[in-house]
Write a structure and sequence with these properties.
This protein folds into three domains: 26-128, no CATH class; 157-273, no CATH class; 283-447, no CATH class. The protein contains 17 helices and twelve strands. The chain has helices at 2-13, 18-25, 30-39, 70-82, 89-92, 103-111, 157-165, 199-210, 220-227, 244-253, 287-317, 324-333, 341-361, 364-384, 390-403, 409-429, 431-447, and strands at residues 46-53, 57-64, 98-100, 115-120, 123-128, 173-180, 186-193, 239-241, 256-260, 266-269, 449-450, 453-454. The strands form three sheets. Strands 1-2-4-5-3 form a five-stranded antiparallel beta sheet, sandwiched between helices. It has a five-stranded antiparallel beta sheet with strand order 6-7-9-10-8, sandwiched between helices. Strands 11-12 form a two-stranded antiparallel ribbon. The longest helix is centred in the middle third of the chain and has 31 residues, at 287-317.
């Protein structure tokens, strides 16, 4: 009987209706602002302003002073609220972008994104008044061109989106916004062209972006490491660019682009190995010049990887292949070197990488001096101290210069690691070691994917029509179709009736 009495008592004390039960467990609307005030305690630049209006009643404003434009706050929010003669809040602050907020968490996030939180009539509103603190649009420092557009992305994601939309002024350019990072709340915008980009690419890109789990994102490279298909590969599977024209060209080809807040680099996918050797300037020069320069980049990439390992293989295993006159020169240059060619080359390559990294980390004015003067001084001192031969110094210097011909910095770093691997194989097996190493690299490239698409296309799988713009760059008027490996919904680039005069008046 006791349990029955307790049951009846509990039923009497519970709210009688479902609505009452919901209200009993839900805090009142008036408590939202109180919760926000507690959250913003011990934040010195958080300010709370309370206004009284006969028609609107009590209005509470909460904002982060360092994140908003104070002049806009006074002009578009405070002054209209003080003079309000109506009861509709939207009519009162017409000049400001007013949006309803659902819950304290959303309001807190909006405040730290540069919004003013307004509490009136038991509801929370957000007014975006973020400060215009940003650097001006400047020429690209990573992908500089002599002829062509001289603007580049900035750290403001909305500005970057504007630079792309000015180049692709069509409604088919779709943008999807994501908020990533439990602490950083980084805005990520996914761009693609509807009815052009393969829907499978968009689906994969959307799923990969949603599945990213991390507390903070401060750079596009952080995001790319979560989106990559092969995290252990030395080759980049996303193209990073700070040029709006390159991003717009990628979108027009049928690719997907990510814009990340607080970083001036956009991510492009899917890409191929050959895309990383293309430069925006290739489409400005005459096609024979562009084809020559692009072919030179591929040669320089291979040259940078195998030149020093080739020297080690010849001097350690295949000296009988060297012509007699050249062999005398090699023997004379190495006659007083106490190290074998492998350790000699390893030492000089490490010294070169140290100089390059040091020149990048030092102030710009002294960094260039360090790279040039340091290389000359150390090289000459190494020869005089019998640590390295003259021939090896030439090999290492030419290798370093050749690596800078690659337009993509991430691919340049990849070639460094491959060079060290080939150096070890050359010391072990000679020329056969270099051949085995290159075959392993080709096998690895054939197995890579970017956004689930083959990384070594249009070679494997083979797309003959795409070779118009791969190693060679043929005339633009011949490129009437988009890359076949992208499997776009609209493969034709040329449309009839595209050109039309602007209306007068």
């Amino acid at each position: 009987m006791r349990w029955l009495i307790r049951l009846l008592a509990s039923l009497r004390s519970a709210p009688g209706t479902e609505e009452e039960r919901e209200n009993a467990g839900t805090p009142a609307r008036g408590s939202d602002m109180e919760t926000l005030k507690k959250s913003f305690q011990n934040i010195h630049d958080a300010e709370i302003l309370e206004l009284e209006n006969e028609r609107l009643g009590k209005i509470t404003l909460l904002y982060i002073r360092s994140l908003i434009d104070i002049n806009q706050l006074q002009e578009f929010v405070i002054a209209p609220l003080q003079k309000a003669a109506g009861t509709d809040l939207r009519d009162t602050v017409q000049a400001a972008h007013l949006s309803a907020l659902e819950g304290v968490d959303q309001a807190e996030t909006a405040a730290f994104k540069g919004a003013v939180i307004l509490h009136a009539g038991g509801r929370l509103w957000g007014i975006s008044l973020s400060s215009s603190l940003s650097r001006a649009v400047e020429p690209s420092k990573q992908e500089a061109v002599i002829h062509g557009p001289q603007d580049s992305f900035t750290e403001q994601v909305e500005n970057n989106l504007t630079l792309i939309r000015r180049r692709l002024a069509v409604s088919a350019l779709k943008s999807e916004r994501f908020l990533l990072g439990g602490l950083s709340h980084t805005t990520v915008i996914l761009l693609y062209i509807e009815n052009l980009t393969n829907p499978e690419f968009v689906r994969i890109a959307r799923e990969k972006t949603v599945s990213v789990k991390s507390d903070a994102f401060f750079d596009s490279s952080h995001l790319s490491q979560f989106l990559e298909d092969h995290i252990h590969s030395v080759f980049p599977q996303f193209q990073q660019t700070d040029r709006p024209d390159a991003a717009a060209a990628a979108l027009a080809s049928g690719k997907v682009v990510w814009l990340v807040e607080n970083t001036p680099f956009a991510l492009i996918a899917p890409i191929t190995f050959f895309d990383l050797f293309q430069s925006p300037e290739d489409y400005i020069h005459r096609w024979p010049v562009s084809s020559f320069l692009r072919g030179l980049r591929f040669f320089a990439f291979l040259f940078a990887m195998v030149l020093t390992p080739f020297y080690v293989a010849i001097t350690m295993h295949h000296y009988q292949m060297v012509p007699l006159d050249l062999l005398f020169v090699v023997l004379e240059s190495r006659s007083e070197i106490p190290f074998n060619p492998f350790w000699e080359a390893m030492f000089m390559m490490l010294v070169l990488e140290i100089l390059k990294e040091a020149s990048l980390r030092m102030p710009s004015k002294s960094g260039q001096t360090l790279g040039i003067v340091g290389g000359i001084v150390i090289g000459q001192a190494g020869v005089e101290a019998n640590i390295a031969s003259n021939l090896l110094i030439i090999h290492v210097a030419v290798t370093a210069i050749a690596s800078f011909l690659i337009p993509n910095y991430l691919m340049t770093n990849s070639s460094k690691l491959i060079q060290f691997g080939l150096l070890g194989l050359a010391a072990w097996l000679g020329l056969w070691g270099i051949i085995i190493g290159l075959i392993m690299v080709l096998i690895h490239l054939n197995g890579l994917t970017s956004l689930k698409q083959p990384y070594f296309a249009p070679l494997t799988p083979f797309y003959g029509i795409d070779w118009k713009d791969t190693i060679l760059r043929l005339p633009l008027r011949w490129m009437t179709r988009r890359p076949a490996w992208l499997k776009t919904l609209d493969p034709n680039r040329v449309k009839s009736g595209n050109s039309h005069p602007e209306p007068k008046g």
